Amino acid sequence: MSTFKACEDHSVTFNGWASTGTAELKQWGYHPRPLGPKDVEIEISHCGICGSDIHTMTGGWGAIKEEVIVGHEIVGKVVAAGAESHHKVGDLVGAGAMVDACGECKDCKAGFDQLCLNRAFTYNDLFKDGRGGKTYGGYADRVRVNGEYVFTIPKNISLAEAAPLLCAGVTTYSPLIQYGAGPGKSVGVIGIGGLGHMAIQWAAALKCDEVVAISTSDSKREESKKLGATKFVNSKNEEEMKAAAQSMDIIICTSFAKDADWAALLSLVANNGKMVLLALPETPLSIGAGAFIQRQVSMVGSLIGGKKIVREMLDFASEHNVRPWIETMPMSDCNAAIKHVQEGRPRYRVVMETGAESKF
């Protein structure tokens, strides 16, 4: 039984696929909170599957006590808009991993609204704007969110391709921009998957001198070149690791093995360089301080991106023809799609389709 009845619009029910702590999703309906003046209601056509969804639904990041509808790579059509929303009915839009922030704090004003203490993530979170309510994600037919965190999809990007840009895209684009990727820089990307294949494309489009794909096997060596990598390093190959030592100004870490040798991976970072951690492990990292101090290397975290950089990212993707490599599956087969992702088989992002696009 939901504890948020006072914040529910009982005139409508949204239907989705929910988890209660396992990767097995079941059909479930909920009442969204009433449409606010800045809100929009989106009829969902596509939703990408992110690793965060699986960490959440399986309880890897903490036990969940109530039904959770995950999914934060949401694309569809606006079917209702509040009076103060800058969107209109019929707009083709997307929503990413956060759906609200205060807009007034220091972080919001600096463009880091993803760090706002009053932010609301797209699912398994609470709205903190005084109206109450719980957030539910995009494995569903519809969603209602603050229109400030809803983005117009460029006309030359398909709705299916747009979905992963709203999380995997901005998550990898944002730190590259923040830490100065571009001409004169060498960028490495650890993990060639849903995030990593985007990071390679961004770095290539930003005209970095070198774009190095780093993986635990050779299986993606040729695909990495097609994505824009100028070099490939197998992290299990001692000779390749030695040859690449201290050569990369920025390394984007999108995934890692449970037995990852962090000292070895940090040895790839150039003096005064940065390793940017995007992957969020379920257990603590273990690494000696000397790996950082002796060469003034730093490891920093990066969390998605604020609304300003999401808009910038979409424009950049449109202009430079950066697109995710996707596989599409029906949302009605979401459990099969989740299994496909868990087995590590996609090249490189799975996007689920509701069938709504045929009506647009």
Automatic annotation (TrEMBL):
Record domain Enoyl reductase (ER): where: 21-352
Signal peptide: none
Superkingdom of the source species: Eukaryota
Keywords: Metal-binding, Oxidoreductase, Zinc
Gene3D superfamilies according to UniProt: Medium-chain alcohol dehydrogenases, catalytic domain (3.90.180.10), NAD(P)-binding Rossmann-like Domain (3.40.50.720)
Reported cofactor(s): Zn(2+)
Molecular function GO labels: metal ion binding; oxidoreductase activity, acting on the CH-OH group of donors, NAD or NADP as acceptor
Keyword Secreted: no
Keyword match Zinc: yes
Pfam families listed in its UniProt record: ADH_N, ADH_zinc_N
SMART domains named among the record's database cross-references: PKS_ER (SM00829)
PANTHER family per record: ALDEHYDE REDUCTASE
Entry protein name: Enoyl reductase (ER) domain-containing protein
